[in-house]
Amino acid sequence: MASSSSSSNFNSASDSWNYEVFISFRGEDTRKGFVDHLYEALVQQGIQTYKDDETLPRGAKIGPELFKAIQESRIAVIVFSENYVNSSWCLDELAHIVECMENKGQIVMPVFYDVDPSDVRKQNGKYGGAFDKHECENKHKVDSWREALEKAGNLSGWVPKDFANGHEAQCIKKIVATIYNILPPLLTNVNKNLIGLETRLQDLKSKLKIGSGGVRMVGIWGVGGGGKSTLAFSAYMEISRQFEACCFLENIRDESNKNGLTKLQEKLLSLVTKTTEVIGSETEGISMIKRKLGCKSVLVVLDDVNERKQLEALAGSHDWFGEGSRIIITTRDEHLLTLKEAAIYEVSLLSDDKAIKLFSRHAFKKDEPVKDYKTLSQEVVSYAGRLPLALEILGSFLYKKEKDEWACTLAKLKCIPDVQVMDRLKISYDELKPEEKDLFLDIACFMRRWDINYAMRVLDACSFHPSIGVKVLVQKSLIKVSNGRFDMHDLVEEMAHYIVRGEYPNNPEKHSRIWEIKHIVELSAMRAVAPVIVRPSLHQYILCLCI
Description:
- The chain is an alpha/beta fold.
- Helix content is about 55%, strand content about 10%.
- It has 4 domains: about 5-180, 3-Layer(aba) Sandwich (Rossmann fold); about 190-345, Rossmann fold (3-Layer(aba) Sandwich); about 350-415; about 420-545, no CATH class.
- The chain has helices spanning about 25-30, 35-45, 50-55, 60-70, 90-105, 115-120, 125-135, 140-155, 170-180, 190, 195-210, 230-240, 250-260, 260-275, 280-295, 310-315, 335-340, 350-365, 375-385, 390-400, 405-415, 420-430, 435-445, 450-460, 465-475, 490-500, 515-525, 535-545; strands spanning about 20-25, 50, 75-80, 105-110, 215-220, 245-250, 300-305, 325-330, 345, 480, 485.
- It has a 5-stranded parallel beta sheet with strand order 6-7-8-5-9, with helices on both faces.
- Mean pLDDT is about 85; it is low at about 1-15, about 530-535 and about 545.
């Protein structure tokens, strides 16, 4: 449908919009019927709507508050009913709406409820009779009212009695869908401030294939702190208006541990259906999700999934959701995504220029380092390895600190890593089985950049059965195979060293693994190596190579 002109000004004036929709209507005609249903449908879609009896603060003067609400609304829906023009109040609203349409770029959408659009334009029929009275009582306003009616009546709109054989529910559904699609993404301006997000967002959207039909699951996978949740949330805010219903379930790892999966099922259903749901068991929750979401086009984001049972309870199968649905899953474990046949989007690290820009935003509140801090900034970014989490934490920590404090921080990081960063990265390690933990620490401490075939033969000869364990570590983004060699992010390697040092960072004789040659030589001289070896075969092999 075509609406008001001046749409080119729609976004330019967006900073002044406090409401998304203003409904102008004659209460005695439509308040308890059409307008009530329209208002509820808009609110259920998360559209901030102003309706005088619902939104007007108690005790406020009606005139100034309503006119202010009109001015602060992106879209005005005018419900022209039989008695609309009998009210001078409604006509004042209309005149102000038309003024905002012409001067502020407000979009105006008329609904001709039991009236003919031509009667609105030309003030014929009942509309003409009402003006006979206005000519006597409000003569000084009549011309402006007539002009506003003519302009609004010429806009393309909806005639409920002619829509879907008079089924008002279908007409309301179409009105809401039109408004939903016109409104801009909620985080448009915020996304511009998230460094490196635009390209990632476009790549993710190409994986989602919105509009191509079917039900599609897409997993966002990568190392901890890489920006998976930020990307998922930004995508959610940008595309959610294209679905009948949507839901963002964050921190599933923590929430499922604290409150159980039934609470997450209740939250999913409540957010999608806009009702309060109570679920007695996970099995009941699965049945309700299938029944209530199977006929809807929904967007669901499952953030920070770390166990298969979470997916089985919340998105067990594609056929749980209606045609056109999209399910986004963020996880550090690739294997969970392959189980659900999800398309996988691997989050890459930031480029060098994006990394320095992100760090500068936090360290200097600018897009580039302050002149005297450029070299120091490059050193911090190099240490962070272009990992967004580390760049943000370190940048915020160094904000407004002097150069000597920067130098001291860098020196300290080389010996003692940032605990906040390590703890976030360590989540993936904590979820490993004991034998997988040992394998990871061995690779991180001894085998980074080793030829994978050679490394696998060594591990296998030491009876570590590495084939399955290595695959798990790759799937959990702890290690990767690059150019035929074991590799990992610098901070992941440092996290492994941090774990091994444990409570005794300065006492290598108490560590389970020794990888620095100086410590190996020192402890060998002291004959203190053997007591600290946990896996003698591999450690003795490494020891021979080093000495």
